[in-house]
What we know:
By secondary structure, the protein is of the alpha/beta class. It has a domain at about 5-200 and about 260-290 and about 335-365 and about 400-434. The protein has 6 helices and 18 strands. The chain has helices at about 5-15, 20-25, 50-60, 65, 75-85, 90-100; strands spanning about 30-35, 105-115, 120-125, 140-150, 155-160, 160-170, 185, 220, 230, 265-270, 270-275, 275-280, 305-310, 310-315, 345, 355-360, 405-410, 410-415. The strands form 4 sheets. Strands 1, 2, 4, 6, 10, 11, 15, 17 and 18 form a 9-stranded mixed β-sheet that branches. A 5-stranded parallel β-sheet has the order 3-5-7-12-16, with no helix packed on it.
Amino acid sequence: MGLTADQTRAFLVHAHNLGHDAARLLDGAEEVRDFGLPALDHGRVFSTADDASRGCRAEHFFNPTIAARRRLGQGVHDRCEAGVFAGLPVAQSDLVGMAGHLPFPVRASSELTRRIPAGTEWDVSARPGDWGREYRDDVVRVVNIGMLIVEPGARLVVQGNLFFLLCQRVIHLGDDDLDGWQIGVLATPFSVDPGTGPDNGARGRDGETGLAGADGVARQATPTLLGPTLVRDVPEGAADGLPGGAATDGTHGGPGRTGGAAKIAEITLRAIEGSVTILAAGGDGGNGGDGGDGGNGGSGGNGAPALRTFRGLLPAGRGGRGGAGGAGGAGGRGGHGGLASNVYVSVPEAFVPQVRLRPLPSRGGAGGLGGSGGKAGVSGAGVPPGVPGIAGPDGAAGRHRPAPPMFLNDRPVANAAAIPFEIQPRGGMSHAEQ
Length: 434
């Protein structure tokens, strides 16, 4: 089991183009080089596409998924990437818009043989912080492998980098598991929206309970031969209990963040033993936080008791009305699913039956539940109850976003029906699977 002379030669040619030392590679070392790309069109050196392939890509590059976001900031990136991956002309205004990202950070690695042990994940992702860049900036990741051996349950993943993979020979030692996958083009493990805070929105704060109203001031009497005689009266209304204080409202739940973005990728496999499944997906949006519950209204004070004297009955004071309950906070909006870009997979036609493409849509986060309205405070005797707080509305769910457009030998896989197995639900996936 090894590479042919032609495969080794092709591996070393690509390594030379990446600035890697052939002697060290043939000794079994991994060569890694970080550098800056001075112009976008220089990125074509990483691609295996020829003019004919770029022409085919140009016909479908701005498919509905990509065309729908042309007015977003991502649209500028898409049009510039179309120049690199599909040979399309790039407007000067878009080049000006991308100039602030130059030189583009690139991490390129070559390795003659890489074995991924069973049940493990080889994450080749690079982060902008390694170049002192803002965490949301793009990074190009180039991986050149002579022979890739994937043991059962093992995976190669890239998370949110512009990705070029050239492998002369890939050997998958696992079973032909329709639910599994071996290469993943995944989203950044963090949101790339302009917001801040956790992926899942924080729960709102509960409202404060209203203060209890004071009881009415009681009159006082003393016994005499004629009967009880009033010795202390109170001002008019002072015998009435005071109303309970109103509660405060619960605060709104925080919004969920937009899911991470999966970037454009080109994967070239020159020979395959076994089968290879390539998964691509944007990140799921975060869930909105639940709204805080409204506080309970304060209890109304009791009226002073009635008092009988020899002159007659002095009526009891009125009870105070219970305070209003606080309104529940609104549930936070769920974050939208993350964007995903084109993924190009190229293999010799003889190996097409051994390749499966598995594009998955990104799900919007669930909206948070609205907080409960607070209970009305208990009123004094004979007084109507206070007003309970209203419940907060539930937050809206985030938007789902379509699966990454995937292409096999530059032919588009239009939808899940074109894939020879059923797409599985994404519930419960780990970050590595999102």
